[in-house]
Amino acid sequence: MRNVKNRRSFLAGACALAVSCIATRHVLAADLPGKGIVVQPIGLSTPTARFQDVIVEMGLQQLGYTVKEYIPADPAIFHLAISQGEATFSAQEWTPLYDDYYQKSGGDATFERLGHTVTNCVFGYCIDKATADKYKITNIGQLRDPKIAALFNSNGVDGKADLVAGNPGWGAAKVIRRHLDLYDLTATVRPAFGNYEALMADVIARFNSGKPVLYYTWLPMWVSGVLVPDKDVVWLSVPSPDPANGKNNSRLSDGRDTGFPIYEMKILVDKKFAAQNPAARKFFELVTIPAGDISAENLLMQKGENKITDIQRHAQNWIASHQLQFADWIRQSTAAGQA
Predict the structure, then answer these.
(1) Topology given in CATH for the domain delimited by 123-245
(2) pLDDT of 28
(3) What CATH number belongs to 33-120+263-338?
(4) Looking at 74-204, which runs of residues are DSSP E strands?
(5) pLDDT tens across 294-326, in order?
(6) 279 within 8 A of 333, measured Cβ to Cβ
(7) Which residues form the ABC-type glycine betaine transport system substrate-binding domain (predicted)?
(8) Beta carbons of 12 and 40 less than 8 angstroms apart
């Protein structure tokens, strides 16, 4: 008889606990700082740029925000869209690379650049190590020599070096054009602008067939997992510091000057939204993703896992493997929203 009473007492307690947990979940859902607030992410159209955005979007969803479908755009467009209230944020604010877009679209009066999402991002020019070693090429200025430039000619017509330079709408495109003028390379080097993924597929095919290659790239990026710096390829120095870099560091640890600052990726956000949403602001300030993790994810995409569902799975796996850190970001952000 006593056992029956005990079982009844246990069941009653279990039911009460279950009801309590359900009620708690409802309360917690109702208390989420982003509940009822819609955000619009925007950023680069390059598929390999999506990984960090998806991680940020998932964090915002955990804070209760409704996240609309991502808008792909060139940097000039996504800066303008955020400044005009047509989008909320981008997790791809390369600094100082995008300073011109930032200032022309309103600067500090319109935006905030938050956090340190990805740090120590190297940009520059690479050639295959075999050609670098054979001809002792360490500096892109050596391509002023027509004989050296001709090594990297791929059309077989004019003898100019073909430099894969990426999408013409990128901020780096302006830097590359400036470098060709600044370092007196326009007579011997031809930049190839277009779809970067397609251009790099040709570079990799040339490399695999033993031909010299010359291309612009950056870290984090899947390319570095296929053509590994200092193993398969080498970074080239520029002949002299680019005055446009000002006080920004453009040197690798061994002293080589790539001509590009060592960039950092921040989150660009509508200033009004940041002021009115302390939870989202705090999350933007906290989230950090190692550059190597992005390169590794990009390599998975290059190997065929490149649909948005794949990228979302990669992001979920990343969050799961950093669960304690991610949960702490959510906890701190929720507290900021409730303060």
Answers:
(1) D-Maltodextrin-Binding Protein; domain 2 (3.40.190)
(2) 53
(3) 3.40.190.10
(4) 89-95, 111-121, 123-128, 161-166, 189-193
(5) 999 999 998 999 999 999 999 999 999 999 999
(6) yes
(7) 55-320
(8) no
